[in-house]
Amino acid sequence: MGNLVADLRAIAGPAHVLADPDVVAGYATDWTRRYTGSASCVVSPGTTAQIAEAIQACAGYGARVIPQGGNTGLVGGSIPPAQSDGADCVILSTKRLTALCPVDPRSRQVTAGAGVTIARLADHAAAAGLRYGVDLASRDSATVGGTIATNAGGIHTIRYGPTRSQVAGLIAVLADGSVVGSLSGLTAGSTGFDLAQLLVGSEGTLAVITEARLALRPPEPAAAVLIAGTTGIAAATELLAHIREVIPDLLAAEYIDAAGLALVRDVAGLAPPTADPHEGYLLVEIAATAGVPDPDAYLQRLDTVGLPADTVVALDANAMAALWSYRERITEAIATIGMPHKIDVAVPIPALGAFCADLEGVVRDAVHGHGNSEPRLIVFGHLGVGNLHVNVLGPDPADTGVDEAVARLAASHGGSVAAEHGIGRAKTGWLAFSSLAADVDAMRSIKTALDPAGLLNPGVLFPPEIQQQRATTRTV
Amino acid sequence: MGNLVADLRAIAGPAHVLADPDVVAGYATDWTRRYTGSASCVVSPGTTAQIAEAIQACAGYGARVIPQGGNTGLVGGSIPPAQSDGADCVILSTKRLTALCPVDPRSRQVTAGAGVTIARLADHAAAAGLRYGVDLASRDSATVGGTIATNAGGIHTIRYGPTRSQVAGLIAVLADGSVVGSLSGLTAGSTGFDLAQLLVGSEGTLAVITEARLALRPPEPAAAVLIAGTTGIAAATELLAHIREVIPDLLAAEYIDAAGLALVRDVAGLAPPTADPHEGYLLVEIAATAGVPDPDAYLQRLDTVGLPADTVVALDANAMAALWSYRERITEAIATIGMPHKIDVAVPIPALGAFCADLEGVVRDAVHGHGNSEPRLIVFGHLGVGNLHVNVLGPDPADTGVDEAVARLAASHGGSVAAEHGIGRAKTGWLAFSSLAADVDAMRSIKTALDPAGLLNPGVLFPPEIQQQRATTRTV
Question: Which of A198, A347, A418 lies nearest to residue B197, judging by beta carbons?
Fold first, then answer.
């Protein structure tokens, strides 16, 4: 391995290859600390060309390449495998790809390096009078490249779509070191397969993304935020549909169940948002439609919806922030009472009620089957796009029985086992719950076609046995 | 071939396999009549399962499959090759896949069969109080499947994106007869490579699309349409940027050059739209932003833009339609004076001025180099997304010199040789002008991985020599 480190130092510069085991261990551990692996070194190239050279160098030594952005994923997708199949792993960090071009106001697009953080991108867009459509809690660490590779979501997905909808082009390095893609940002038309869209959500298994051309949006400040007490998620879904009929442009539509609201109130010391407690809470943020911010008009329209009696509407910034705090502080509140199983699933909106009706029983059965005590269940998430975060406290963090049971339940309701966090290493075994075997076969064919040696991010996305198969047919 | 026809009749029903040469010839000819090929029969299966069986039957006989929707493409992508490499071709029409499910208002999505026309889909969405985001002149014939396969655009691309942006899922049959995809319509999240997005724009070379889950939009009637006289496309682009700064939500932004406007006035007998003639005309349609249709507010905002003195703003439906007629009647006006070379290209918006500045010289050189008389050049198109339709009259329709020169010019300005019509058979030789060799190689790897026998739409998208290469390695 000494030679590979030396070669990588010659490519990226001596300062940009870290081989101290303690330092490498930090990069090889997931943000959740639930996933950790082992790597020989961390290389941080400064250009696309250096990344191509680094990948080719790794291929020459039979070493696997683990692309890493902000390392804020929650499913182990940006760290090396825990069990090596004998090959060395090199973590390829994109943190030095921080170039950020001036915003082009005519196309409403910007070109950003893969290592630019979402927070910096958002500030850059705002300085040009525009907005980046994806925002998420990890904005200070999560990167352009990482969020594209995982098709990251967030609270504004209902309005602007997930990261996929922002990508107007990208540059990436394939496993053979070839550079593909375009930054021309053309939204009209077609010249063959859209490789950029294939790479969105490919979780580092097909290429290392180095630059992206991203769509920006006109700014839309919030005109109002409301929280409505409901009888549960089915009622919240119904209410949301009525609200969207009269106010189509919602910036966010979130759900918090009774257990989640009680916990966040308790931990954060917040007053109740509504007069009485409820089974579930719908939080809606309404856009001040471009240039016509008229709160009265919104309120009149909301009046026609038949909002529940126990609804609070905030119209000024402080009051809006106060309502958001119930949703924004849930994750930290949960962290104070233990290490939860966080199961990120998507379910078609019409099936959310039935999914949640089954959830408690499924969780209890899964937990008791593993000899655990009574579980604590908290459900919240991006209701407007059917993306729920199911949190279960009680079972040992290493016991994935409840995670699997919830993923299976989502799939049985027509949903998917992974949503805004992706498959990573955590969910490869469950891919078949919600994807047709033919889909997985087609994915595998594409993976083999573009990365025949299984060089990029082995063990991510595909079940490990497939990677092992691959390793035996390695041609490098 | 007799056996294949019999097998296909057994699969799809005797009435749904047409083998009369005169009838087949009609299906084997492109809407433009510039492209025609030869096929043994036309099969119109009624279900996804029948399509899978039909593809497998064709594979068994070594026959190629040419998927066909409305056959309204303009680049020969939906008809068989003119020169056979010895293999029979079967046209697989999706016209019987006309199922249209009820609109789901909660997800704002609908499931439609591949053979549903865009006009029928639009009516269906409107009946549910929603709108389909893509509209195009061929709406009465163009189908859901065909517009997905070509990533069709149209006048609303600036607002809703091309067809790609509408696709929330699809079902398709691969070359091996396996059925892939999902209609769950989940917009949040990622469970591996997005096969649906890979198939958008793949022009029938990877799969036959049979059903799609499509996003619908809230209706946005037009509040105003304006035509502004400008000094040319650079000025029109600049003006459009200013308008978008104050009114972000434009439904359309079209360009018509002086020659185009003069011709359409002449042929259609229309009065001039503006007081004086100009080098170029910007036509803008402004959405009545959801629920707050206030023409005065728009006009006040437009006042801040510094519109050219010679601008006409229409606020009522008849006046808006009158302004649109200059744009909508251009294609028929051009058809009255000859068979034009129609070159559909996309150019980054900031480069449109430079592209058009070079265009006349490039066209003249290309035409004179081929011994033709003075050409007539008309430029119009979807300015807001950089998609221009360059029309050249004069050169013999069979002489593609000017088409190639214009495609090359677009590429030299950072644009692409194809836009909303795709590559088809017409532009395969020019793919490399605007795509990196590595991109084409990656596309070819994916094509080989999913269709190793080159069964689906040979000669489309990839240069013919590649298909011939493929034919020699055919494994069926």
Answer: A198
The reply to whether A21 touches chain B by the CB within 8 Å rule is no
Q: Helices B437-450 and A437-450 sit at what angle, rounded to 10 degrees? A: 140
Alpha-carbon distance of B156 to A377, in angstroms, equals 45
pLDDT, tens only, A134-192: 999 899 999 999 999 999 999 999 999 999 999 999 999 999 999 999 999 998 878 99
Interface test with A, best of B165, B167, B186, B206 (most A CBs within 10 A): B186
CB atoms within 10 A of CB B123: 13
Do B392 and B376 form a contact (C-beta atoms < 8 A)? yes
What are the tens digits of pLDDT across the range B254-284?
999 999 999 999 999 999 999 999 999 999 9
Local confidence band at B298 (pLDDT 50, 70, 90 cut-offs): confident
SS3 track for A167-193 = EEEEEEEECCCCEEEECCCCCCCCCCC
Alpha helices in B116-194, H assignment, sequence order: 118-127, 144-149, 157-160
- In the block, which residue shows the tokens 């804020």? A72
Chain B residue at shortest CA distance from A181? B439
List Cβ neighbours of A297 (8 Å cut-off, separation of 6 or more).
B291, B292
Rounded-to-integer distance, Cα B188 and Cα B333, Å: 45
Predicted local confidence at residue A295, as pLDDT? 66
Contact B186 A240 (CB under 8 A): no
Instruction: Indicate the pTM of the whole model.
Output: 0.94
**What is the distance between the alpha carbons of residues B148 and B135, in angstroms, rounded to a whole number?**
13
Q: Tokens in use for B73?
A: 């493409």
Residues in chain A: 476
Closest by CA position to B340, among listed B314, B367, B322: B367
- Collect contacts of B17-22 with beta carbons under 8 A, ≥24 apart: B17/B41, B17/B42, B17/B43, B17/B44, B18/B42, B18/B43, B18/B44
What single DSSP character describes residue A109?
E
**Separation in Å, CA of B363 to nearest CA in chain A:** 23
Give the pLDDT of residue A291. Answer: 47
C-alpha distances out from residue B155 to A117, A165, B344, Å:
35, 19, 14
Nearest Cα residue in chain B from A189: B419
Beta strands in B293-336 (DSSP E): 311-314
Q: How far apart are the first and last CA of chain A?
A: 16
Chain B residue closest in CA terms to A175: B442
CA dihedral A35, A37, A42, A48 (to 10 degrees): -70
